[in-house]
Amino acid sequence: MDLRYSDADEKFRSALRGWLAAEAPKHGAPPPRDDWDARRAWDLGWQRKLFDAGYAGVNWPKAYGGRGATLTEELVYYEETARAKAPYVGMNFVGLRHGGPTLIAEGTELQKQRHLPRILRGEEVWCQGFSEPIAGSDLAALKMAAVRDGDHYVVTGHKIWTSFAQRADYCELLVRTNPTAPKHKGISWLILPMNLPGIEIRPLPTLRGESDFSEMFLEGVRIPCENVVGAENDGWRITNVTLRFERGTAWAADIIELTQFLRDMAKLAKQLTRDDASAWEDRALRRELGHLAAEADALWALVKWQIGEVQKTGVPGLGGSALKLAFTELNQRVYEFGHRLLGRAGLARDDFARLPVVEINDTFLNTLSLTIAAGSSQIQRNIVSERILGMPREPR
Amino acid sequence: MNFSLNDDQLALQQGIRDFCEQEFPIDALGVLEKTPVTRERWKQLAEMGVFSLRLPEAQGGIGLGMAEAVLVFSELGRRLVPGPLVWSQLAAGAVDGAANGDTIVGGLDDTHPTNRPQLVEHAGVLDAFVVLGRSGVTQAPASTLTGSDFATPLDPLTPVRHVAALPQGAVIGDALAAARWRRDGALLSAALQLGIAETTLALAVEYAKKREQFDRPIASFQAIKHLAADMHVRTEAARAAVYAAGATCDDAAIGEAARAVSSARVVAGEAALKNARTCIQIYGGMGFTWEMPPHYFLKRALVLEHAFGTTDDHCELVAESVGA
Question: Which residue of A has its CA nearest to B234?
């Protein structure tokens, strides 16, 4: 049990800290939420700066443009970017946090060379085409049909709840390549170039009022067979690799950001006046904040614990379901606390009176998606109870 | 960094686990009610190194750290081993005979706002009594603890005595030492709480797999499975936090030890109480009976809630650190 960062880790930390202090403020304020071209440019621009400085893909292989460092340095990277309030991963989430990692674990050499360096350089945005109107929690029931025609699949069907579809270059697409096999056995995982003919994207405004969400309709879209990741009809296994990244290590950065946010809320509470005293004088408020911070500390320790597992196997284990469940629910409580701290100022969705209304309210509203995405909290509870605790499966 | 337990730590954990499973079987908890602590068992615990674990080798101890102590104490918690385990471990090296089990040491934190009325645990078997005050740590013979024993303590394995006044003892440590006892005591308590969370989870899952209703094991119902999943999540978070706090106490370069301990104590305390309650719920009507084990775990979790700072106290300590 050795929790000490090595000298090399600390050297990496101090160089990164210096670089972030100089560069993060220069990147400027994030663009307005509905200016999608500007948001793409801002997110990718920051990724490019990270790449040029050698901080993109900290634990990705050097051969594909990564830093080739350890997962421990990746943790240092998350701690420092949270501390510096560097730009969020934003539109790069899918590519960096689970699309790219899936290709590293399961992709062909050609697929890795084609995509990984471009994801790291901020030249490629990915989205995730998993869910369908009839296949949400029952993901394996998906119906999007892929029919082989020579060296192409001809794909037709309907995807839903696809974030950033209208600004993405590629999509992690799940299709049914064998309609007669049992539902888990006929799925394939394809790389869909979003510029192919036959793709229609219809925005689906979210409860935040943004149109980052979409429905995707594919009609006879011809996808080269070389774009299949893993073997044809082995897509459910690949999907679980993707989901393990999405449920496990993908949230490490967000967990450490919770602690940073609570630090900001403590500062804010000291500035706010309630009943002729600062809000921080309120013992109940301090206890609630301390409680949330203790839970965030514990989850950060759990990330470190699970990193040990990833280092052994290369892919996050089932424990990611427990982490995802705990993090996403804590996340909602933390930002709701922030909202309550704002008081009636929180009735707005614009910054005013020097209060971070946008950060708090918009992030809080966004937290409501995370207990649903990547397998709802209820699905995670099924996974934990059945696959970790060995309780009998639901009839399905 | 490698958070995994090393081979020595795994061997230590397995050794104490085997001992506790042998000596403190869960289905015999009721047998302990009459005499929760005996000298013979106390000596056995001492021989296992429970008290001398952190004492330097030069002083006859094993010379290990808090990282190892939390492993040992979570095993003791898993089997609800009774007695003033935390106080006696803290006292090793400071009170004669504590390390080798000859002296059974109990204690109380006299600075805590809820310590009136003064209830002392295990007073009847103690040899020495330690008080944590504002200015330091004092020690007195346990014979000075005059008062009346309650006929029915909350935890049947933790007898309590109402004492009129705490003894004026001899000073064995300064204010800094008292602070260190409080911190280490909170973490060892958190490790016991972790053990309670682990066992109540295991008991609940085992029971749910066997118990049938509607012609199916109740473990197949989502209503039960989701309760168990939440117990698991709480346990995992508590384990990571307790282990991390142990390592942080041993190496200042890792982080702020007091913060890590308070965070661990908050999540472990909640995991113990909530898991024990949920365990009783999953046992259903049987969970409300004395003969089934879950109630012992709930009651011990309640005893631990009042030792070395409450959950609320530690929430405030974490908040102070966050706001610093």
Answer: A326
pLDDT in tens, A222-262: 999 999 999 999 999 999 888 887 776 678 888 999 999 99
Residue A222: beta bridge partners? A154
How far off is chain A from B252, nearest CA to CA, in Å?
A: 9
Which is the catalytic residue, given A246, A288, A295, A336? A246
- Say if residue A396's pLDDT is above 70: no
Query: What does residue A132 show for φ and ψ, rounded to 5 degrees?
Result: -130, 165
Identify all chain A residues contacting B259, using CB atoms and an 8 Å cutoff. Answer: 297
Does this model's pTM top 0.90? My answer is yes
Distances in whole angstroms, Cα of residue B206 to Cα of each of A34, A390, B200: 52, 10, 10
CB contact at 8 A, A349 and A361: yes
Enter the ipTM. Answer: 0.97
CA-based nearest residue to B102, from B46, B145, B158, B23 = B46
Query: Residue A159 belongs to what H/E stretch?
Result: strand A152-159
Q: Which residues pair with A284 in a beta bridge?
A: none
The alpha helices in chain A, defined as continuous H runs, are 7-23, 36-52, 71-83, 93, 100-106, 109-121, 235-247, 252-271, 283-313, 319-342, 357-370, 377-383
Whether A4 and B253 lie within 8 Å, measured CB to CB: yes
User: Does the N-terminal peptide bond of residue A224 adopt cis geometry, omega within 30 degrees of 0?
Assistant: no
Each residue of B279-307: pLDDT tens digit?
999 999 999 999 999 999 999 999 999 99
Active-site residue A232, yes or no?
no
